[in-house]
Amino acid sequence: MKRQRNNRKLFTAMTGLAIMVLLAACSGGGKPAAGSGGESAQPAKAAGAGEKVNGGSVVVIVPQDPDYLDPHLAVAAGTSEMMFNVYEGLLKPNEKGEIYPAIAKSYDIAPDGLTYTFKLREGVKFHNGNAVTAEDVMYSYERLAGKETGKPLSPAFASVQSIEAPDAATVVIKLKENNASFLTSLTASVIPKGYQDSNKKPVGTGPFRFVEYLPGQRLVIEKNKDYYIKDVPSLDKVEFRIIPDQEAALAALKSGEADIFPRIGTEKLEGLGPEFQTVSAPQNLVQLMTYNIAKKPFDDIRVRQAINYAVDRDEIIEGVALGKGTKLGSNMSPIMSRYYLDGLQDTYKYSTEKAKSLLAEAGYKDGFSATLSVPSNYQFHVDTAQVIAQQLGKVGIKLKIEPVEWAVWLDRVYKGRDYDLTIIGLDGKLDPNDILNKYASDSKNNFFNYKSPEFDKALKQGLTELDPNKRAEAYKQVQTILTKEAAAVYIMDPNLNVALKKTLSGYKQYPLYVQDMSSVYLTR
């Protein structure tokens, strides 16, 4: 007997995200985690005031250019932050991390968990006016699975055996093996069959259609008048204004040039006038300092552990995030409550003595020198780097801070793996496997150069295990391995602070790195 799924039951345990967003991000005993400020992890909505006004335009500040407009090639979180409004998949996440129907209206999963059958929603059109068919879905997901090239564009689709379209409204996907995270993978974007120009002229099915992109300046989207949900969106146009410098971004907000400033520095919130409103909550993001484990001395676990002991996370949370951050001990936020393993954040309690002892044991009694490369468009990471440089200096590790442009960071650090240390924020996902699989030995996204057979085995278990409780245990083991082997210095899940004009309402915070403009509207 098949398990029926309809549009009211799509967000089940198979989403892999038992996120429990109604709970605060807590440590043991139900108390707020260190530095959390007691903030609720529930996605916040800006209150707004006054009567709703249909139409109008909004300017949203973002710190970086997209890496690719083609959704199947993009890896930068900042790209999906904007293009979330343009592209959709069979399924789509909401602000609670639940999955609901988008291009699909319903689906069945075979009892063995290997066959997924989707029925498409009627009336869905691409931005070019063409109706979406099963052939478009098959083309998009076969492209991600690398059916023609033999090289999957997305690891999540590597387990796909076949995709069929028995009729224009039905898609059948068969897997080679059980993949408990696969359902969340089907939020991946659907593009028109055979379309080759996605990186210049994106065509999706989302509430907004692409208008233009000027590198270093702006990306503009406009209302999709053919969107299948009535009265969505309200706004006529949204401009994502690319402003890497936080001071320049703040000036644009205060002068009225911009309307929404996501990820505004906590220290800037108090300086805003009464014409602005703010929201702040944990965001399911992991800020970490990672080392290139393929390079000496970071190939020595004792050095990596020494660095962990030498970093005072509490000082960073208080000094850089002004208390609005949740201390972490591995690559997962407490927002992922079903899978999160509490207590790891106390594994490397700050101790310069322990750090010095481990360094001496590894043959670095007098320390060493290294370069810490940080994306200059993220002031939060630059500030964190300055604090860490001071902390490591106390144990003899001399860090040279190298601010690099975002494009350089992506090319040299992320893709080229040419660096000593770096600080970055790894965005949250809907499923624990999608958060942790970048550490797999064969992952193309493993810019840490981390390799661990024990980790790979536990990760595989979590991916193929269909029992929810056993799956959760597998991912807790995965987190423990990362912490034990000091794969990185896990710092915090910094609160997402957003400032916006009081004439706006409907803004939603997600446990994902996205800006959903479909619910935002102007008031008077």
TrEMBL record:
Residues 98-446 form the Solute-binding protein family domain. Its main location: membrane. SUPFAM superfamilies: Periplasmic binding protein-like II (SSF53850). Pfam families: SBP_bac_5. It is a lipid-anchor. The keyword Zinc does not apply. Residues 1-24 form the signal peptide. Gene3D superfamilies: Dipeptide-binding Protein, Domain 3 (3.10.105.10), Periplasmic binding protein-like II (3.40.190.10). InterPro entries: Peptide/Ni-bd, SBP_5, SBP_5_CS, SBP_5_dom. It is found in: Cell membrane. Keywords: Signal, Transport. PANTHER family: OLIGOPEPTIDE-BINDING PROTEIN APPA, PERIPLASMIC BINDING COMPONENT OF ABC TRANSPORTER. Belongs to the bacterial solute-binding protein 5 family. This is ABC transporter substrate-binding protein. It comes from Paenibacillus oleatilyticus.
